[in-house]
């Protein structure tokens, strides 16, 4: 901690003294680099942290710069007033550009945002008010009493302060709840939604952040260069920005800044040999992507990882049972009523009805392809049923989004494990623990101490959860590096951390050995005893027989039997279904 | 009315070229899950090669095209080898990795052929055909015919040959294909080779229509990618329909909105994608989560 | 251990602070002075796009400027000092342009040749003015004059001159009134559009069609079909070489037979090649440099150019050659002055160049005449009358 403070303070002092060592060319380059670093941080937040492929970052930059230019030269506003308006305008545009993200992702979002960025340059090239292809010159320099900001040396200090604040804010976002939730969404948006992350809102937040950084960078650009033209905001600069973010390491804001500084400096150094510079820069990008996908920022952790591997391995501790809490009641917590689900020609669910009482452990069994997981997906809001309704906690929840269901007290695990791969085990649990609303993110600006306090509290709670599940020693590790059985347990811990009233477990025993299955049974029973209703899909009949109070059997998308384990096992239809399963080897049609 | 029809004709002729570019994008994507942003630069390489053989060594145009396609196909193999680690990786990495490759190709083009570019005379003599006051260039008809032929051959290759069927299998299920003994790596290499060949075909054909310069492929690449997305990424008929649609949309936007055409084209494109995210024919992908 | 490392870090930082602070004292940053060398080679800078979309212009300019410099060096330089010409790549990006302007200033260059792109030049102008570095640009936009920098000079006429001459020829001279316009929305096309429209309006002529295309448009069917329906006697073309060539080619394919008219780009070999010689036949061109064999000077320039680069000389090279010659002449006459003195020397230079007689005024424009040529048999030749 002390070292960190010393390093930051040292860097601050060095940055403060830097201009004394630079000539007028170097300071200009530094000023431009800071602007690109700001842009890279914004792009890093949207792309690296939130996983939104935003190829319009350079257009946000342009909107900020052009808005400042137009408002000062055409409308005669003062620089600072124009700057504030310009940032507001950029944010509005940013949110508009971001709306496609609600419908499409990945390469679709990439080409859409790229197209919109091209549309922006096309607009400024034509528009009279934006000065057409020749741009707008003679933008007034920003004024501060007693400081001549037309001097690039003094402008540097303005940029430095803005940049330091922006970077600190970005790091604060990434390291607390909002950033964690965005990273979770990036790694697995389905799982994040099922844990209560408001995915649409978070995607818009990503574009909001990107556009704020773009707008601020644009304002600084207008104040520094005092001239705007369409070429500065073209596709080549977008690719340059992308290169900076990827080479630096998109998941780390410090990495993005490093990438921006490094790439710009190298380009500046090689500016006398543009063609070779181009080959070099392209080759470096390819090499980084192929051999070091986490970029420059990923190198120190890798080295540390090499060193750490010699240390003592973390060990799994036994699960500490809950103290028995509320016992079962006759209240019904979940009702599935005549649900149908059709995929093109295939009837995955056909008129399925069941009801689960509070405090019950319900098993759902059936041959492969009988619609079990589809049923879970309908209950947890991932699928919309073709017909029928789902009632949860006494309310109709048929077409409610997963994150609303999660907030209403429903939690689930997934058949093929959906842990957030690039988050640590502790962070995986934290995402579930954090029940704050994304809309409350205004606190980040107006009351950051509240955010900090909440995060500290959550961390303590997370450690308690990990302690209970015997995972404390894995808290800082990445889940993908862990053995399968431990990953399963992390996923259950995460689902329970969301404090559900109803917990859906999709094949929790798959891939576990005998001892692990026994521990699992213990865990599930204890979770139920603490007052959580449990529904589980399972193929391990031993576990189902031992654990479940009631069992529902699905076959071909229909309920063919329901009752106590012993009763169900004796039902002829069930035996037939299972024999048939052995005979014809079913296909996996659901996910 | 005459303006409208003539605009459609103009749009279709470039649309055929976009369709060929889109085919290359889609073929590579459906087979190996790679969005190759260097595809546009491969188009430029193809255009330069075709024009070089045609102009400098005085080969007949058709022969020059064949040689260019073959050479570009080999270049495609090299690119596939380098980019192999990116296959089925996350999109950001693919995006920037292939863009990086494109930047290298661009620089190499400038080093080999210079920055200024060259004009390629039309290989087809013959005046435009006049029909009800509409004019159709003979060369446009040639381009359309070749594009159609290439599409038909591609479909036949994928459906009728053993190797094509193997590639179809890889496209549908990577793991299952491996399990039944299909050599996935070879399928990928062939997809990339054919994709690069299609790029060379597009570049070679567009040379006499436009002007061969290092920036030729950039615009074609973006429009071709948009076309592939519009038709349904990975779908062969989708690429053709998407290409023609983007061509016509572009021409109409140019006619009605003049300088603002690009703005309108991309706004319309965004609107369509928002309404129907998987394109006209729906996405065909390698591995869906 | 931890504490020790912390202390060491603090000590290192302090040392660094003392080192940087100690050398510069407590003055405001940036108060250091620039050194300009009085011996050694005379340093000229050429800033142009050497990569990216507009690199072809940059390549031509470089060839022209280099030729001028090597001629002077062959004759022994200026005052016994050799001249060096260093190339800076703007990539056509104004932001990079401003970086380069600072770099050129800090590295002690006396004058700058370029750029070929008005937007980049306008971005660089305030810095070059502040640093006192004369700049001879190849841009022709009226926006360059509006910058009002006494350090900015044009190496050719502005769009106004080109298009006024053209309008005079076709409207006043040939009596053509039915004129259509097709221009692009780039800085060049926009300038042409405005200048020619103004020249027409002054003569009471309204164009029958006024179509605007984008700089990277490829298909012009819509615009050209609209023009065809208006049946113009002449089509004014305001776009760069390649796009102009494509427009003419597509127009002929669409059955438009009216001749085209335009400024300098329509007289270049690139335009002719792209359009095809047959299609370009009859195009009327307003240019200060009609061809390589218009005068003795241009003939020897073209010969030297061919010898040096093994390709035909063209307008952009000629303009850059003239601009560089003017700077070198001014350097000689002023005894290698710099800053304001050099700018004044350029303003005072009377120079007979490939483009005509240069004499600069306070606007930075040195030449105000173009000639009219017509493409006949695949060659640009002076128009009769």
UniProtKB/TrEMBL annotation, chain A:
MF terms (GO), sorted A to Z: hydrolase activity
ABC transporter domain ranges (all copies): 333-581
Listed InterPro entries: AAA+_ATPase (IPR003593), ABC_AA/LPS_Transport (IPR051120), ABC_transp_permease (IPR001851), ABC_transporter-like_ATP-bd (IPR003439), BCA_ABC_TP_C (IPR032823), LivM-like (IPR043428), P-loop_NTPase (IPR027417)
Compartments where located: Cell membrane
Transmembrane segments: 25-46, 53-71, 77-96, 108-125, 154-174, 206-229, 235-266, 278-299
Membrane topology: Multi-pass membrane protein
Domain of life: Bacteria
SUPFAM superfamilies, sorted: P-loop containing nucleoside triphosphate hydrolases
Keyword Cell membrane: yes
Stored CDD domains: ABC_Mj1267_LivG_branched, TM_PBP1_LivM_like
PANTHER family, A to Z: CONSERVED COMPONENT OF ABC TRANSPORTER FOR NATURAL AMINO ACIDS-RELATED
Protein name, as recorded: Metal-dependent hydrolase
Species of origin: Winogradskya humida
TrEMBL record, chain B:
InterPro entries: ABC_transp_permease, BCAA_transport_permease
Subcellular locations according to the entry: Cell membrane
Membrane topology of this protein: Multi-pass membrane protein
Domain of life: Bacteria
Keyword Hydrolase: no
Residues annotated as transmembrane: 6-27, 34-55, 61-79, 91-116, 136-158, 190-212, 224-248, 260-279
Family label: Belongs to the binding-protein-dependent transport system permease family. LivHM subfamily.
Keywords recorded for this protein, A-Z: Amino-acid transport, Cell membrane, Membrane, Transmembrane, Transmembrane helix, Transport
Record flagged with keyword Lipid metabolism: no
Name listed for the protein in its UniProt record: Branched-chain amino acid ABC transporter permease
Principal location class: membrane
From TrEMBL, chain C:
All copies of domain Leucine-binding protein, residue ranges: 41-377
Signal peptide: none
PROSITE patterns: PROKAR_LIPOPROTEIN
Source domain of life: Bacteria
Keyword line: Amino-acid transport, Signal, Transport
Family: Belongs to the leucine-binding protein family.
This protein's name: Branched-chain amino acid ABC transporter substrate-binding protein
Organism field: Winogradskya humida
